[in-house]
Amino acid sequence: RYAINLNVRGIQPSATLRINELSNQLRAEGRDIIKLGLGQSPFPVPERVVQALRDHSHEKDYLPVKGLKGLREAIAGYINRSERMRCSWEDVLIGPGSKELLFILQLAYYGDLLIPRPSWVSYAPQARIIGRSVYWLPTHAENNWQLTADELDIICRDDPGRPRILILNYPSNPTGCTYSEDQLLAIANVARKYRIILLSDEIYGEVQFDGRHKSIARYYPEGTIISTGMSKWLGAGGWRLGCFIFPPELRPLQDAMAIIASETFTSTSAPIQHAGIAAFTGGEDIDEYLHHSRRVLKVIGEYTHRRLTDMNVDVRKPEGAFYLFPDFSGYRDDLARHDIKTSAAFCTALLEDTGIAILPGSDFGFVPDQMSARLAFVDFDGSAALQLASGAFADA
Ligand code: PLP
């Protein structure tokens, strides 16, 4: 009876949010639920940033579509300091979460979407809603789930001039893996050869456990857009602030996105943008917060990895973010005896039988009967963990 857009029919609400709602519902019914489904930072927002939000809570005006100049300057300063890309404040676009910006990027640019398999749950549905084609690029656990330059070349060489966007997310949701500089360079060279727009999703860049996060923008500056925000390293997912940083060569694309923004969300909430200035300007307190967050996540990630490995589950050790992508196919026969033949059925049974919520690999682009799942190791008291990290085991 209702003329629902055909592109939207058949797409389920975001898997991550669905499992979170189910976990909450079971908790409300009194069940003891271990929430390893939703990828939300366990840490509180740093106090100085919360104070900035309080100080600006009276700000009520619409802001410029591309964002508050002070925030764009703070973000440009942050990107330059971290040596990801040389940029000016005019290269920055602010939006209500990087998810929204990823969506309007695909509205503004006409091209196929290339994503490694497995990838974050929302890239492919966003493309499908808009009616774009999605190409999954194979990656392998033995290879730390890294896309290789060869795989990218193979998919592009048949039709070299075709407009395409490649999204590369590292450290990765769902695998926790990242890339070496050599690997980034090799991928960048192929992207340049085929003039692919490279969206470098660096939302977990600050939570890379060892060494400094490096951006592929260093190797393909003219074609790379960096995506980041405050959700994953600052604990402020619900505040909804994301940003894209464009090279000057892609200014027309940035302007096209700003037109769509002006006709849709208008601008991101003013108090949040002011708080963002405090966050991206940084300071010793935020450096310390990040230092301790990384240490806590590394310890918990490695512990979880060890426990799974002890159970003969095949899983890569995480290098950043807060995810593991274990493969339970070693248990396939046992599971089949209980009529569990898909990763979705496995995750549902796990939640119902044990109260542990994780997400099926099929939500990340895997075929249903591949027994992988994503585990977000974030169900702990982030404030207490930060206190412990800054005192009790600071030098451990
Ligand atoms: N990219 C990745 C890989 C993510 O995991 C997420 C959130 O889960 C996002 C982007 C979107 O983040 P936000 O819209 O909160 O900036």
Name the helicity range: 25-40%
CATH level 4 superfamily of the largest domain: Type I PLP-dependent aspartate aminotransferase-like (Major domain)
**Average residue pLDDT:** 94
Tell me the distance between the termini.
64 Å
Q: How many separate domains make up the residues?
A: 2
Distinct small molecules bound, one entry per kind? pyridoxal-5'-phosphate
Strand content: 5-15%
**Which consecutive residue ranges, at least 5 long each, have pLDDT under 50?**
none
Query: What is the CATH class designation of the largest domain?
Result: Alpha Beta
Q: SSE order, as H and E? A: HEHHEHEHEHEHEEEHHHEHHEEEH
> So how many helices?
13
Q: What Rg do the Cα atoms give? A: 21 Å
Based on CA inertia axes, which overall geometry fits?
Answer: globular
Largest sheet: 7 strands, mixed
Number of DSSP-assigned strands: 12
CATH architecture descriptor name of the largest domain: 3-Layer(aba) Sandwich
User: What fold name stands as the CATH topology of the largest domain?
Assistant: Aspartate Aminotransferase, domain 2
Going across the biggest sheet, name each strand in turn: 2-8-7-6-5-3-4
Structural class: alpha/beta
